Amino acid sequence: MIKYVTKKKLKNVFLLMFFFILTGLNLQAQNKEPTIRGIVKDKKGVVVASVSVVLYTTEKRIKTSYTDKNGVFIFPDIPPGKYVVMIKHVGFKYKEIDVEIIPGGTFSSVIELTESVKDLDEVKISTGIVQRSKNGFTGATATFTGEQLKSIGNQNIIQSLKTLDPSFIQIQNNLAGSNPNVLPKIEIRGKTSIGSTTLQDQFASDPNQPLFILDGFETSLTRIVSIDMNRIASVTILKDAASTALYGSKASNGVVVIETKKPKPGELQLNYTTDLSVELPDLSGYNMMNAEEKLQFEKLAGRYTLSFPNAYLQQDLDAMYANRLKEVKRGVNSYWLSEPLQTGFSQRHFLYASGGAEAIKYGVGASYKTNKATMKGSGRDEWGANIDLSYRKGKFNISNTTEINGYKTTESPYGSFSTYVKANPYYRKLGTDLRFLEQTYNIIQLDKNYDVTNPLYNAALNSYDGSKNFAIQNAFQVKVNLTDNLLAQVAFQIQKGITTGQTFISPLNTIFDSTNAFEKGSYTNNRSDNFNYNGYLMLSYGKVFKEKHALTTDLRAEIREDNNQYGSYTAVGFPNASNGNPSFAYSYQPNSRPSSVKSKSRSDALLFTANYIYDKRYFADASIRYDGSTAFGSSNPYTPYYSGGLGWNVNNEKGIKDIKWITLIRLRANIGVTGNQNFSSYSSIDTYNYFSGINPYGQGVLLSTLGNPNLEAQKTVQSNIGTDIALWGNQLNFTINAYRKKTSPLVVAVDLPSSTGVSKLPLNVGYLDTKGLEAVVNFSPIYKPNERIIWTIGYTGSIYKSKYGNFNNTLASLNTAQLNSNSLIRYKDGYSPDDLWAVPSKGIDPATGREVFLKKNGEYTFTYDPADIVKSGSGTPLIEGVISTSFNYKGASLGIYLRYVLGKDIFNNALYSKVENISFQGLSENQDKRALYDRWQKPGDNARFKGISLTSTTPISSRFIQQENSLSGESINMGYRFDQKTWLKKVGISSLILNAYMNDLFYFSTVKRERGIDYPYAKSFSFSLNASF
What domains sit in the chain, N to C, each tagged with a CATH number? Predict the structure, then answer.
């Protein structure tokens, strides 16, 4: 049925529609507010998601946004005015757009980003002194962001750097294991000094340790290990002469430059991070006997059989064996290794607030970490706070950073872990009240008791061992843009630190059982104070001529003074109930007195450096530095250091830059001279000491050390040839460096005849020559950076060889000392610092169970002769590096990093001391299972180890040097980044990052040996949360 509408009704409908249209237009006009809108794409026109977009005024940051899956970003409700839109994204060049909003207007634009690998002018290398464009610098460097460091783990900077860079090697400390209070030993591209004999005092560091620079100023390894990783913006490793000659006499071991995060302008921003870790002791390397095996071993080794006829004493031995066998049959099988251990736990909290305008920026941060380590009672607590202020107005840029930090360490009252490894499993665990596990008379030495100490008793006493540190420093810097091309800088830093340590051993400890009553118990107190200041004045000039010639020069003058003081004393003789108060001590330690050492060292330097780039194709840099230091001989206080290098960006040549699949081909080479100052500042002057007594003529003095005023500084000539190649838009990239380091002359403390009255004299003698090759390769089978989907397979590798030369017979006395101390290291021309020396062994004679040695003339003998010692291995691996894979999908990430070591010779201490060379007294300690199952027992046995009944000890032979190939799980990590989530915005969080780590998860080796002698190694499982508000 059809209904007709009258003209009057139709008119009313039209009027109503017109009213709604007018009302809608009016409402739309009222609701329309100024908006900034954009779409971000790459060069191919593909939209880029999750790009950070920040809106600024001339004074401060207004808002932050991110592009959505369609590449769109929107800033609604923007007041009229002038703005800057900053677009930043990983893998693309930073971009800024000027925007002006008029009343009632909007801004809309399509923004195209360029991949950063195509324009390397934006990539800068921070050397700690100057910044250089990566496409115009000839040095071999490696830079890692704080985010890259935390992708490996949340422990400390050192643990992450050793995984990321092949030249940064952390030397394994098999004694200290994972003890958090022992500093790591670091080398970059091998050694440059003789570490065991180079003159050092209480204030000198490892002579093969790299130089550490924190925010432009020199710092210590202790500070680097303790600094909160969440503060780190970037770390740059400088490896060769072109990059390290800027530091002259301190740079031959490489330089590690750390830069912390700086405050950002805008509204107040809060960043909070918590790092949680659990550590589990790794005892997989221990292969100790159980109770039944140990008793059987003792029986076969002759512990219960007299070597002379005495029926009465033999009955006692038989009774002892019977009692212990009875305990074993009852099921006694004590596992002592777990007693001093616990599940370690650590937590770190970091809070940083920053903000301000472009003119004035501020940042305030605080961090605290507590670490209860895997041995009971051991741990390390660290804390720190910093204030960053920055003022920028016109030509002036002024900044100031104040920082305080400290730590507290405690060592385990359980002592060395080896004590529990050696404990016999057939003894019951008797708690902490009984001093001994067993007491009887000594059957062999009737005038002495045979007492087996209960290790748990000593651990329960009120002994302690710990230290505290407090440090404060302030750094002030002023930069003035004198012209558009000339920058002046002046900076000054002052630092004060105090470290105290106290060690108390209770007089009830069983180690004092045979000690005089007036010497039972000991208390040691030490204190170290350091104060230093350093500053520099610098002029920098940079200009581009005719669009093709880029020149940068720098002139810098530096001064530095270090004042150190160390004092210590040991008091002995305490009442049984004493808590270590030295006022209750009976006396100082016999034949000793309090010690005190003061040291003052000064240095100054003048540096000139220049860098030239032509048409982004060819480049060159050079530097010369003139260093003066009290560490040098007083007759040679100043020494020049220099470097020069050339490079070629092949990818910018005509005919090549148009090849789309070639992103980068760079060739570079450099040569230069650097030095090493990690030895005593008094090595060039004579020092004296007072006699402890007095005579009618007064108190006399004696010559303590003889100085060498003609001592020259160590110089290392370094050369490096390298290439950087990136293909298919960075989908495949690799860096290869071949290098040589020759240190000549070395500084060595040489023994003097006793008639001189002094023991050693520092001399310049010999050289150390190192040649090596390192490579870093990354390939991404899946490479979609605009979609944030990347799968990368990585490989790093390092090969190097070193040798001494020109020693002749100068160091014969040092080699004799090494022999007497049973060391495997020697100092001989043509050989490496890491070579292992021993008498060659031909194995075990099947007829007698004795070891057969090989003499230099080729004869076989049962007699060990030190004259037959030869090189039997090398501690330098054939190759070492990391194999990795990482996968990033949007906000999710997964990474696996495995360290491989091939062809490294090591001394297996477990074989030497727990399988063989077990004395009669050593039979009372637990031993490796191989001492029972793999030793020779009867004629005809084809065994690897000597006769089980032989308790004689022989020096080390080549049988105990084994070649190791290993694979370890250095880091396995996964994480997720939440950005622009509605549920986050509701609680005021702009970004949330979650990460989980497993570090040192496993260690596979071709050599079965004990790892962690005094303190075991540990596996760590960690979690990290970072939230920005």
Answer: 30-114 (2.60.40.10), 120-272 (2.170.130.10)
For 777-832, give the secondary structure using H, E and C. EEEEEEEEHHHCEEEEEEEEEEEEEEEEECCCCCCHHHHHHHHHCCCCCCCCECCC
DSSP for residue 512: G
Burial class (CB in 10 A: 0-12, 13-18, 19+), 582: middle
> What letter represents residue 778's amino acid?
N
Residue 248 pLDDT > 50, yes or no?
Answer: yes
Q: How far is CA 82 from the centre of its chain?
A: 48
pTM: 0.88
- Written as six digits, the tokens of 328 are 């074993």
Name residues whose C-beta falls within 8 Å of residue 783's C-beta, 6 or more positions apart in sequence: 728, 729, 730, 731, 790, 791
- Hey, is 92 helix, strand or coil? strand
| pLDDT at site 837 | 96
SS3 for 582?
A: helix
pLDDT tens readout for residues 318-335: 999 999 999 999 999 999
- 745 prior amide bond cis, ω within 30: yes
CA angle 467, 413, 335 (to 5 degrees): 145
Output the DSSP codes for 947-971.
ETT-------BGGGEEEEEEEEEEE
**Cβ neighbour number for residue 692 with a 10 Å cutoff:** 9
Give the containing element (helix H, strand E) for 453: strand 449-453
| Per-residue 3-state assignment (H helix, E strand, C coil) for 855-884 | CCCCCEECCCCHHHCEEEEECCCCEEEEEE
How distant, in Å, are the alpha carbons of 193, 217, 249, 1000, 1015 from that of 676? Answer: 8, 17, 5, 33, 32
Pairwise CA distance, residues 261 & 229, whole Å: 10
Please name which of 794, 974, 891, 664 lies closest in space to residue 90, comparing C-alpha atoms.
891
Tell me which residue has tokens 């007294």. Answer: 921
The CA-atom distances, in angstroms, between 949 and each of 305, 372, 738 are 11, 44, 53
Q: Which two tokens stand for residue 179?
A: 């003890």
By C-alpha distance, which of 144, 88, 133, 92 is closest to 115? 92
The packing angle between helices 311-329 and 291-300, to 10°, is 160
Listed range (376-390, 722-736, 752-766, 794-808) with the worst mean pLDDT: 752-766
pLDDT at 33: 60
Q: Which stretches of 444-523 are DSSP H helices?
A: 455-459
Query: What backbone phi and psi angles, to 5 degrees, belong to 505?
Result: -115, 120
Determine whether 21 is exposed, middle or buried from the number of CB atoms within 10 Å of its CB (0-12, 13-18, 19+).
exposed
User: Distance between CA 659 and CA 676 in Å, rounded?
Assistant: 45
Query: What's residue 570's pLDDT?
Result: 96
What gap in Å lies between CA 529 and CA 641, rounded to an integer? 32
Question: What single letter denotes the amino acid at residue 975?
Answer: G
Residues 1002, 971 contacting (CB under 8 angstroms): no
The better pLDDT of the pair 116, 588 is held by 588
Cα gap 206→184, rounded to integer Å: 11
| Closest of 387, 382, 320 to residue 352, by C-alpha | 387
Give 480's contacts (C-beta < 8 A, 6+ positions apart): 395, 396, 397, 487, 488, 489
Q: What is the CA radius of gyration of the chain?
A: 35
pLDDT value, residue 223: 93
Residues whose CB is less than 8 angstroms from the CB of residue 163 and which lie 6 or more positions away in sequence, other chains included = 152, 153, 882, 897, 899, 970, 971
Say if residues 258 and 213 touch (Cβ distance below 8 Å).
Answer: yes
CB 984 within 8 A of CB 994: no
Biggest alpha carbon distance in the chain? 142
